[in-house]
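JOB MANIFEST
job_type = single_chain_structure
chain_count = 1
residues = 122
[input]
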Amino acid sequence: MTNEQKIAIEYFIALVQKYELAGSVVQRGRHPYGIIKSENDQVEMQFNAERLRWVVNSSIEDSVQSIKVDVVNNLRSALLAAQSVDQLYFDRLAQRLQGELDRFFGFMDLGKEEVLWDGTNS
């Protein structure tokens, strides 16, 4: 298992514990998967080392941050795709994960919004 996959798995586990979800990590061949379960279904997310490899040339801290953003983004995408199965559960979780992304990029601390351009008033 690559360092990138280990970091991704550790962060996935931290997210599952933070949101008190039923989840697990399994390995199929060379590929580890994170799984989140709801009452009716489960969503799987593959920790793809190829997708994470581009961060290796940056600093360790930047790499870890990039991997975390990648995990949240991909997990959120998987949850949004699964909404039709257990819509309310996965939709709420996807919204929470959006909050994680907003914190990563500093959007929570921006203060009041100022409209610079509004295409609806032309």
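[summary]
The radius of gyration is 16 Å.
The CA atoms of residues 65 and 104 lie 8 Å apart.
exit_status = 0
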